[in-house]
Specification:
It is built from 7 helices and 7 strands. With about 220 residues, it is of the alpha+beta class. The strands form 3 sheets. A 3-stranded antiparallel β-sheet has the order 5-6-7, with helices on both faces. It has a two-stranded antiparallel sheet with strand order 1-2. It has a two-stranded antiparallel sheet with strand order 3-4. Strand 6 (about 155-160) and strand 7 (about 165-175) form a beta hairpin.
């Protein structure tokens, strides 16, 4: 696949729960636009569309491919059921598995890792800021991924570099938009301290307006 390859938007992709770009069935985005939508806005419609393309038209097949790749990476407790992380009773992971994935993204794809630190994405005249609050207030943050469902709470995987020491942190199940980055900052501070690196003062953190988040599925 190339970055300028077209990604078709199906009805299924367009009807994914938010957060989303609001893609219209029958339209197209590029692979690079989909990547930027994922790393900034966690756009579930873009995730589904890209998953369907890679899975030969089937998001379910793509989820099976994801699970097989997870096993190959040593993520032994992870099973994917969709491309976005939207609720599914059989979709599970652990903090250790997500840290393993984060480390492999960095080591296996260094030429593409810069996407995760994208501060803002411009899409069809709209400015879409990155959801990861660590980029704004924790020095050395390289980004990675936010996530939320009502069942799982607020989640965050973040990498940060300090004096040639790179750490990958995982916070799962935070209770608020302020708690999530503060827990992550505490984890990273402890990590750099354990590595013998001098602390750096954090910028003040002020949560933005609440995000439109995915609800739990109906019983």
């Amino acid at each position: 696949m190339s970055l300028d390859q077209s990604v078709p938007v199906s009805v299924r992709a367009s009807t994914r729960e938010p957060s989303k770009l609001g893609l219209v069935p029958g339209s197209y985005i590029t692979v690079e636009q989909a990547i930027l939508a994922l790393v900034t806005k966690s756009a579930n419609d873009a995730a589904c569309a890209l998953g369907e393309l890679i899975g030969g038209g089937s998001e379910d097949r793509f989820a099976q491919m994801m699970t097989a790749q997870a096993r190959a990476l040593g993520m032994t407790s992870t099973t994917f059921q969709n491309a976005s992380g939207l609720p599914d009773p059989e979709q599970v992971t652990t903090a250790r598995d997500l840290a393993t994935l984060g480390r492999r993204l960095i080591s296996d794809f260094p030429e593409h890792y810069h996407y995760f630190s994208t501060p803002v994405f411009y899409f069809r005249g709209r400015e879409i800021p990155n959801h990861n609050p660590m980029l704004r207030f924790y020095p050395g943050t390289e980004g990675m991924k936010t996530g939320y469902t009502a069942q799982a709470g607020l989640n965050l995987v973040t990498s940060a570099m300090r004096d040639n020491v790179r750490l990958v942190g995982v916070v799962l199940g935070a209770g608020s938009n302020a708690e999530r980055p503060n827990q992550m900052a505490n984890l990273l501070d402890q990590g750099v301290q354990d590595a013998g690196v001098a602390p750096v003062a954090r910028r003040s953190f002020a949560p933005r307006a609440p995000l439109v988040l995915a609800p739990s599925p109906s019983p």
